[in-house]
Specification:
- The chain is an alpha+beta fold.
- The protein has four domains: about 10-100, 2-Layer Sandwich (Uridine Diphospho-n-acetylenolpyruvylglucosamine Reductase, domain 2); about 105-225, Uridine Diphospho-n-acetylenolpyruvylglucosamine Reductase, domain 3 (2-Layer Sandwich), CATH 3.30.465.10; about 230-335, Alpha-Beta Plaits (2-Layer Sandwich); about 345-440, Alpha-Beta Plaits (2-Layer Sandwich).
- Helix content is about 35%, strand content about 20%.
- Strands 12, 13, 14, 15, 16, 17, 18 and 19 form an eight-stranded antiparallel β-sheet that branches. A five-stranded antiparallel β-sheet has the order 5-6-10-8-9. Strands 1-2-4-3 form a four-stranded mixed β-sheet, covered by helices on one side.
- The radius of gyration is 23 Å and the shape is globular.
- The relative contact order is 0.12.
- The structure holds flavin-adenine dinucleotide.
- Flavin-adenine dinucleotide (FAD) binds near residues 79, 80, 158 and 431.
């Protein structure tokens, strides 16, 4: 790996003149955990950064970025490294900025429904801080125990509840950003605490989803919501995948938008049944977890209303109304990774081609075709996802030591990405582009990619911010 700018040997030495000694890491053993994230891409070939810095303040970050600008050195922001696309990995070497020490909750302002936090704050810690105020932060990634709010904003992360509540983008009211030349701006109004604004171009949204390629987020002003006091889940089993779409459409026609409509394809049901047979998941092609939230009375009646509608298409339905049963269902859903390993002993789940999002009406066709491609290539794959917003996840299971199986898994991931675009969807619903999906950006975005590249060049003319990511052919030069 060659660093574009200053020689490797002097980088750490010079950064130690700008930051406290312990904030600069350059011994190879300690650098190792920063050489990968959760992507199969990075696990196969680790990419050591030249140096990692662990700042405490925005001014520390500014000093590092100014130095990177002067020396033409790549600089890569890193939250918890749970990303599945190589986003936080130094694809071309350089300086990784870890936000592990910038994790404060600066303010929780219930009356104004917002909070100000540092980007290194872990999602679950934020929820724990909000809970005593009766508040919550709705985007709910499965990695919430580890991932950071900075990483979520940079990737526009979300989870099952995006169906009703939307993605991280809807909750970023403003952010403090260190730009590529080391200057600092506040988006969303320098002193604003407004919950909405039509004033100017919404620059906060420019940085959300830009994966650290346009600026480094050092503070976030986030919208939060009152937590609904009750919830219940209708568990519905379907003989055929097509009926799941019809069921959801029946709910829409009846004026109902559930909080989740989480899908377990038959492959996922079989895996969970092996792991937790006592759950008694129904047989058939698919299971949906349809959750409703609200006041206890409202939930009591709404869950019956949903059940009545869903029963027209589902072969079996049941409710989970008490919190312990609801939590048990969701725990089973989040244990899918463990369940997959039991269903396919000796295989490992890899994160590749895992995040298609397609129109709701295309979900059955997409899953059927994806199953066929998996079978053609002889690769085990389990499907599940956030059905209510068309986000179909695929868990590819392989023996990473088997080079032929790895080759077939690569082909499967590639064909899944292409399938997503072909059916009118996107290669990533929530995990981001990073290094692994940049090659699909032209096919997905057409000429709009050129405008993204122009924005990138205007904000980062030297190309020091997270190079090798996101911008299609501009990111080439790095083996995928
Ligand atoms: C088991 C598992 C389950 C997951 N489930 C979900 C899910 O349900 N939904 C979902 O959306 N994702 C999910 N993910 C993916 C991942 O957790 C999310 O994308 C998450 O938002 C990444 O956060 P992080 O702190 O780990 O970021 P990192 O992986 O460290 O970084 C991700 C990107 O953000 C950039 N970045 C980080 N901090 C900053 C900053 N301060 N300023 C600018 N850029 C920054 C990085 O450069 C990188 O491009 C899952 C991952 C795993 C391993």
């Amino acid at each position: 790996m060659t660093t574009v700018g200053a020689p490797r040997s002097t980088l750490a030495e010079r950064l130690r003149r700008l930051l406290p000694h312990e904030a600069v890491i350059d011994d190879p053993a300690t650098l190792l955990p920063y050489a990968y994230d959760a992507s199969f891409w990075s696990l196969r070939q680790q990419r050591l950064p030249d140096v990692v810095v662990v700042p405490r303040t925005t001014e520390d970050v500014q000093r590092v970025v100014r130095f990177a600008d002067e020396t033409n050195t790549p600089v890569i922001a890193r939250g918890a490294g749970t990303g599945q696309t190589g986003g936080a990995v130094a694809a071309q070497g350089g300086i990784v900025i870890s936000f592990a020490r910038m994790r404060e909750v600066i303010e929780i302002d219930r009356a104004n429904l917002q909070a100000i936090v540092r980007p290194g704050l872990v999602f679950n810690d934020f929820q724990a801080a909000l809970a005593p105020h009766g508040l919550f932060f709705p985007p709910d990634p499965g990695s919430g125990r580890a991932c950071t709010l900075g990483g979520m904003a940079a990737n526009n992360a979300s989870g099952p509840h995006a169906v009703r509540w939307g993605t991280t983008s809807a909750y970023v009211l403003g952010c403090e950003v260190v730009l590529a030349d080391g200057s600092v701006i506040w988006t969303g109004g320098a002193r604003s605490k407004a919950l909405k604004s039509s004033s100017g171009i919404d620059l906060a949204k420019l940085f959300v989803g830009s994966e650290g390629t346009l600026g480094i987020i050092t503070t976030l002003r986030l919208r939060v919501q009152p937590r609904p006091p009750a919830r219940a889940v209708v568990l519905a089993g379907y003989e055929r995948l097509e009926d799941t779409v019809r069921s959801l459409d029946d709910l829409f026609a009846a004026g109902m938008l559930p909080s989740t409509a989480e899908l377990l394809d038959t492959s996922a049901v079989t895996a969970i049944q092996k792991w937790q047979p006592s759950l008694g998941l129904p047989d058939g092609e698919a299971v949906l977890f349809i959750e409703v939230e609200g006041t206890p009375d409202h939930v009591l009646s709404e869950v019956r209303y949903v059940d009545e509608i869903v029963r027209k298409r589902a072969s079996v339905t049941r409710f989970a109304e008490d919190e312990a049963s609801v939590a048990r269902l969701w725990a089973a859903r989040s244990g899918l990774a463990a369940a997959s390993a039991l269903a396919h002993p000796g295989k490992h789940r890899i994160f590749a081609g895992e995040d298609m999002a397609v129109p709701l009406t295309e979900i059955p066709r997409t899953i059927r075709r994806a199953r066929e491609i998996g079978a053609e290539l002889g690769v085990a794959v389990i499907f599940y996802g956030h059905f209510g917003d068309g986000n179909v996840h695929s868990a590819i299971l392989i023996d990473p030591e088997d080079t032929d199986e790895v080759r077939r898994a690569d082909e499967l991931a590639d064909r899944l990405h292409k399938l997503a675009i072909e059916v009118g969807g996107t290669v990533t619903g929530e995990h981001g582009t990073g290094a692994v999906r940049s090659r699909y950006m032209r096919a997905e975005h057409g000429d709009a990619l050129d405008l993204m590249i122009r924005i990138k060049k205007a904000l980062d003319p030297k190309g020091i911010l997270n190079p090798g990511k996101l911008y299609g052919e501009m990111s080439r030069g790095e083996p995928l």
